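#lab-general

N.A. 3:47 PM
ok so I finally got the sequence cleaned up, no stray characters, all 179 residues accounted for. can someone with queue access submit it? mine expired

B.Y. 3:52 PM
send it over

N.A. 3:53 PM
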Amino acid sequence: MQTYSNAEFENIPNHPLEQGLQQLLERLISKMQRDELIRNTINQVRESLEVDRVVLYYFYEEWYGQVTFESLISQELSIFGSTGAENCFNYEYAALYLAGRTKAIADIELEPIETCHRDFLRSIQVRANLVVPVLVPRGLWGLLIAHQCHKPRLWLETDIKMMQIAAQTLSTDSNVLES
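B.Y. 4:20 PM
back already:
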C-alpha cells in the first residue's frame, strides 16, 4: 500500500477520497441551507399568523412521516418527532394532498373528521389546524401545518394564502428538491 505526504496528496488529481469528502461537504451544506430555510419559513409563518405552533411533517417513506421542524409559542407545546396517529393517515388522505388539498379546521370538536384523527389532535392539544401540502415533482414531500392549541380559530383566506406561499417556497427550493 502506497502512502502519500500531504504535499503529494494535494497534487493527486481527482483522488477518490478527496472526491468523496467534497461530495459529503456539498451534501452537508445543502442540508444546512435546507434546514435554515425551513426554520425561517415556519418561524415567519407562526409569527405572522400568531398561532401556537407551526410544524413541518416530513414523509420519509410512503405515508409514514414525522414532525421534523417546529416553531412554538411555548416549549410545552413541542411535538417534535411525533409520527401522527397510527393507521389514520392513509392513501385516501394522501391522494387528496397530492391533488393539492388545503384543509382548514376551525374547531376539531365540530368538524366531521375521523375519530382517530380527532383523538390524535386532542392528544397534541390542537383545537384548530390548517394543513397545506409541500409538493415536489416526485410527489408529497411533507405537510406544513399550523395549530391553534387553546381555542377554535376561523382561518382567513389570507392565512391560507400565506401557508400556501410558504409551502410553495419550500417545494421549489433546490435543496428541498434534492432531499
